[in-house]
């Protein structure tokens, strides 16, 4: 993989990281603690709010995991290890990297 391709992947990962961090800021309200005051919120509305809270927390967990994968990919680019399988050391197919630049294993080692 040449330097221009690596820079393209690096820029794409940085853009993805920025958008995920922006989403994190906007989703903090959805994950806030649900008010349990029966007078202020009806039972069904409270259940809906609790479900929305759980969904927001799961989304936050997934976003955090994706950010960790992005950071790992950026570290691999800096260490000249990007695009190579973590297990066997073979080169990962460029098409797979275009779909998900955070992958760490070739198709053979994924099985």
Short structural description:
With 111 residues, the chain is mainly α.
Succession of helices and strands: HHHH
Integer average pLDDT:
86
Helical segment count: 4
Kindly give the count of domains: 1
- Strand percentage: under 5%
Radius of gyration (CA) equals: 20 Å
Secondary structure: number of strands? 0
Unreliable segments (pLDDT under 50, ≥5 consecutive)? none
What overall form do the CA principal axes indicate?
A: elongated
**Percent range of helical residues:** 55-70%
Structural class: mainly alpha
Care to describe what's here?
It is built from four helices and no strands. It has 111 residues and is mainly alpha-helical. It has one domain. It starts with a helix and ends with a helix.
Features:
111 residues, mainly alpha, 63% helix
Write the layout of secondary structure elements.
Blueprint: H1 3-26, H2 43-78, H3 94-99, H4 107-110
């Amino acid at each position: 993989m040449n330097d221009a391709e690596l820079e393209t992947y690096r820029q794409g990962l940085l853009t993805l990281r920025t958008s995920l961090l922006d989403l994190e800021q906007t989703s903090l309200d959805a994950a806030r603690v649900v008010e349990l005051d029966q007078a202020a919120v009806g039972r069904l509305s409270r259940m809906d709010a609790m479900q929305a809270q759980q969904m927001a927390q799961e989304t936050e967990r997934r976003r955090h995991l994706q950010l960790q994968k992005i950071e790992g990919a950026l570290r691999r680019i800096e260490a000249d290890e990007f695009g190579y399988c973590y297990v066997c050391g073979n080169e990962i197919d460029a098409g797979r990297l275009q779909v998900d630049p955070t992958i760490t294993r070739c198709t053979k080692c994924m099985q």
